[in-house]
Amino acid sequence: MRFKTVKQVLARQSGQMGRLLEKVDELNALDRLVKSCLDPFLIPHCQVANLRSGCLVMMAESAAWATRLRYTFPDLLSRLRYEARLFNVTSLQCVIQKNPPIHSQVAHATLSLSAENAALFAAMAQEEPDPLLAAAFKKLSLRGME
Asked: How far apart are CA 15 and CA 43, in angstroms?
């Protein structure tokens, strides 16, 4: 029996959730396309936020990155039109991310697995017909045996 992801289940629903997932997929595809036209040093610090009425809204991590991004707007707009064939983009806007992600340099502690849960994973590995999933369960079960 094949399990479906939450995204697959929600995508089949017609209605607001289905439309929301379609919009997310469109924005993710647009983000990849825009990042292919951006300078490499900007890629990790900005992303596409929205596309509305021909205005592509970009989000930057901070005011400093927003300024750098704005300097590239004329070149980016022409590259989007001619290289990426996004003729519907007529203007660009930049907003600053309110709560930027915190990139922690602290090493995270390894989580432990109880012997009981390790045994459950081992049993699941033996009963699973999919060899890749069975191998993953087996690998997880070994963490509790250490």
From this structure: 33
Size of the chain, expressed as the number of residues it contains: 146
Domain ranges across the chain: 6-96, 115-145
Per the CB < 8 A criterion, the answer to whether 116 and 82 are in contact is no
Do β-strands 46-52 and 55-60 pair in parallel, antiparallel, or remain unpaired? Answer: antiparallel
Residues contacting residue 110 through CB under 8 Å, at least 6 positions apart? none
What is the CATH architecture of 6-96? Answer: 2-Layer Sandwich (3.30)
Nearest to 68 by CA among 29, 42, 99: 42
- pLDDT interval class at 92 (50, 70, 90): very high
Give, for 83, the enclosing helix (H) or strand (E).
none
Interval 51-86: pLDDT, tens: 999 999 999 999 999 999 999 999 999 999 888 888
